Amino acid sequence: MEVTIVGAGLVGCLLACFLARRNHHVTLYERRPDPRQEGADRGRSINLAISERGIDALRRLGLDGKVLDAAIPMPGRMMHAPDGALTFQPYSADRSHAINSIGRADLNRELLDAATALPGVEVRFGHRLTGLDERTGRLEFEHGKTETARVVIGADGAYSAVRARLQQLPGVSFRQDYLDYGYKELTIPARNGAFAMDPGALHIWPRGRSMMIALPNPDRSFTCTLFWPHETLAALDGPQRVRAYFAEHYPDAFELMPDLIPAYRDNPVGHLVTMHCSPWHVTTESTTGSTTVGLVGDAAHAIVPFYGQGANCGFEDCVELDRCLDQAGDDFPKALELFERRKADTDVIARLALDNFVEMRDKVGSRMFLAGKRVEHA
Ligand code: FAD
Fold first, then answer.
1. Which residues form the FAD-binding domain (predicted)?
2. What is the reported pTM?
3. Could you tell me what percentage of the chain is helix, strand and coil, using 3-state DSSP and rounding each to the nearest 5?
4. Ligand 1 atom closest to Cα of 297?
5. Which of 50, 181, 319, 338 is deepest in the core (most CB within 10 A)?
6. Pocket of ligand 1, candidates 140, 156, 317, 349: which has the most ligand atoms within 8 Å of its Cβ, to mutate?
7. For the structural domain made of 2-74+101-174+276-351, what CATH number should be given?
């Protein structure tokens, strides 16, 4: 079967691998240029916590070893109190149970390599989808190119163009919920060639209404992410205010951020959104056969990042869709119909992710202060 996937991000590439294993021919259309080419825009430096849910999907394709080799295990979280006191909270009694820090761009390149190494997978970069007719399967791309496909799967992220078309159809419900918070990335560089903090932890600075987190990178830096109310982000509108705020609320991190001022000024503010869409697929029958359009990954169910599960859930989508194809004998309309059963699970993780923001920014902190424990990292 010829399958078209829109979006060669994390989930689109992994799904291509699963489908190629089933002997389908997959064409991926990606709006960006090939990120593996020299000089390609590397985008934001987001790093992700990949956990067992995602590793399980990678393992089924033999991709777990290579991905985990490039990852840094984080067996617990390190809480940073305002006075600099550190408290390590293990995720499990067994320290081999860890979540893993990995750069999103590196993981994407790895999955692109895996997909394009398989027979029957082709990626067409520089193809931004701008229009879709779900009845005929006609896809329109920027610069006037068109294609047709019987099976179209939107893996084109939270602001999916495929979903934008489905949203216009009667019977398709859609809702987007924005938080009043934005996120901004900063960096703690390596110090004298070494990690400036313990790399074996996800670092959290819980500050009641807001927080900062930091995940380690293979180059011994940390990518920090502020999750702050929009008004706080906007209020720090000059170097003095930024310095004073960090010195007061994040004194230990402040000392480790030599580029804080330009990074705070130049790095964009990202939005935090939950997308709800139902159903995730539409099939149109005609005299010449059926055309099916479906959604996976963030295109189907983008969630806020506080449970570190967006990509993990997208990977699990691929496993579940593969299972549905088994059950449906590779009939895509039937498989995508079965795949709708997954919505109950993704609705739950969307709620848990929102709840965990309160847990991370507030509750873990109050517990830490009540316990009054101090742990120094090595
Ligand atoms: P995307 O990664 O968004 O990929 C979509 C692809 O489609 C992109 O390549 C894009 O260029 C392409 N595209 C978009 N529009 C078009 C178009 N019109 N035509 C053609 N191509 C198009 N998840 C975790 O599991 N763990 C974490 O720790 C974690 N932390 C996060 C931290 C932050 C700050 C954020 C914002 C997210 C985090 N996530 C995390 C979520 C994770 O990044 C997403 O869930 C994941 O990237 C979704 O993958 P995707 O392939 O569905 O979408």
1. 2-167, 292-324
2. 0.95
3. 40, 30, 35
4. 52
5. 50
6. 156
7. 3.50.50.60
